[in-house]
Here is the input.
Amino acid sequence: MNLKTILKTSILALTLVLTSQANAGLILSDDGAFAYDDVTDKTWYIDNSNDLLSWQDSKDWALALTVTFDGIDFIKWSLPNKSLFNGLINRGDIDTLLTTRVKDAGDTSLQTFWTSTSDTSNANKAYMFTDTLNIWSRAKTSTRDAWAVHSGQIGSYSVIPEPSSIALFLLAFSGLLVRRKMTK
Here is the structure.
């Protein structure tokens, strides 16, 4: 590899680093209790233990929720709105959440989750999300699962190297190769 090729490769790597954005999307916490969305800066509380609730009961559950992590109480949870679900679907991140749901063997029932979004055309309905990637309007008195969301990152996540860290390593390595070539 000649010096000119090494320099071109280094410049290309640096250009890619400076012009790209690092978004991992939805990342599961190490303990599986949370999923952090670094695009919207929201943490999803993945609770598999709550019963099926009506829309208002789901909203009340999220509002009353207190989650303690590392000795800190996190309050002010809410149901995710319709656009948060749509964003996960459009980015292809929804499967990360759906794989956290534990069904009994042979259970083929549709999983449905309330959103905080009311149906503006019918005050008795609100939107819900299904595990078949649909968002439908249903009676607020029907019962569904619920997830809660909170602003910011909550939970412990394994460190994943960002593209910029990798590129800096490659740039330094290229520099060492150039220096070695020049000293020969």
Q: What stands out?
A: The chain has two domains: 1-22+163-184, 25-161. The radius of gyration is 23 Å. The longest helix spans residues 163-183. The longest strand covers residues 112-118.
